[in-house]
Write a structure and sequence with these properties.
two-stranded antiparallel sheet; binds calcium ion; 38% helix; disordered C terminus; alpha/beta; binds beta-D-ribofuranose; 13 helices; Inosine-uridine Nucleoside N-ribohydrolase, Chain A; 11 strands; 9-stranded mixed sheet; single chain
């Protein structure tokens, strides 16, 4: 039986891969996508979610627009320098004729969880604003989730600041509600998939080359990831591209790919240099599971297989060149 999965995301190059991984996987049914402002603004993350689903032939999956702004403090910057102005590394997808549903992200999540015939897994790959809203306004509904898998945080260094990973940095107050003080009537099993494991789950330029010759969807992903690779090379000196959001989705689909430790996680909501830090106390009263290790070969093989299995609707091979240049400089 397929398990229902909801995805709250800010596409975003790697969010696109998380959507596609879920759509391709027979083990789960992607029952809805909700959007949040993060990598780019909400208009763009919502349009991208719609277009990615349509490209994969799943324009029927409902998309609901969520929060554009964090709870308390406005974002000083988004992540266009990493994801491109269009959020997809300059790759342009055919515009879906579908629009977002006439409901907010919160409403779609609540309705889906309430009406699902079995408990829903929620995967969050953007700032946690919508999820915190769910926890604050509908704690009883949130308590019915089978599991929450969050891409965010780090036991070690951050990527947005020395102390903070981007998704947590973007809305630390929301992350505090979800990770540090959930306050739900029944705790939801929560897994934090942070940089300690996502940095290890990465494609090399050779992997991207292989992806490029494996069908239209895989080739589009490779083109977008090439942009991401350049950004990570420029900002972090990396010569591989981490698959942050697809790893969170892969762990939700195939639990156990990520090895976890139970821990108390204190999100830093101060305004100093460590704002957005996730302080992981492995010996404290545990609130969440934190990823400490990952089965890299199995995870990469799983994600790659899903991407390669998809054929792009409305696109032919010859069109690829005009839909995103090869950003990989070798
Ligand atoms: C996270 O930040 C975003 O830029 C990515 O989409 C991912 O969710 C990685 O730190
Ligand atoms: Ca993301």
């Amino acid at each position: 039986m397929t398990r229902p999965v909801l995805l709250d995301c800010d596409p975003g190059i790697d969010d696109m891969l998380a959507i596609l991984t879920a759509v391709a996987s027979p083990e789960v049914e992607l029952v809805g996508v909700t959007t949040v402002g993060g990598n780019v603004g909400i208009d763009t993350t919502t349009r991208n979610a719609l277009d990615v689903l349509a490209m994969a032939g799943r324009a029927d999956i409902p998309v609901a627009r969520g929060a554009d702004r964090p709870y308390l403090r406005s974002l000083s910057a988004r992540a266009e320098s990493v994801h491109g102005d269009n959020g997809l590394g300059g790759v342009t997808l055919p515009t879906s004729s579908a629009g977002p549903v006439d409901a907010t992200a919160l409403e779609l999540i609540v309705e889906t969880v309430r009406t699902a015939t079995e408990p829903v897994t929620l995967v969050a790959t953007g700032p946690l604003t919508n999820v915190a809203h769910l926890f604050a306004v509908h704690p009883n509904v949130a308590s019915r989730l089978a599991r929450l898998v969050v891409m965010g945080g780090s036991i070690g260094a951050g990527n947005r600041t020395p102390a903070a990973e981007f998704n947590i940095w973007a809305d630390p107050e929301a992350a505090y509600r979800v990770l540090t003080e959930p306050g739900l009537p029944r705790p939801v099993p929560t897994t934090l998939v942070g940089l300690d494991v996502t940095y290890r789950t990465a494609y090399s330029p050779d992997d991207l080359d292989r992806l490029r010759s494996a069908g239209t969807v895989a080739a589009l992903c490779a083109n977008a990831l090439g942009y991401y690779l350049s950004a990570y090379g420029r900002d972090h000196g990396m010569d591989v591209v981490p698959l942050h959001d697809p790893l969170a989705m892969a762990e939700a689909i195939r639990p156990g790919l990520v090895t976890v430790a139970r821990a108390f996680v204190e999100v830093d909501t101060t305004t100093g240099p460590s704002r957005g830090n996730t302080l992981v106390d492995l010996y404290g009263r545990p609130t969440v599971e934190v990823g400490v290790d990952v089965d890299v070969p199995s995870t990469l093989d799983f994600i790659t297989t899903q991407l390669e299995s998809l054929a792009a609707v409305g696109l032919v091979e010859g069109e690829l060149a005009s839909r995103g240049r090869d950003w990989v400089s070798r």
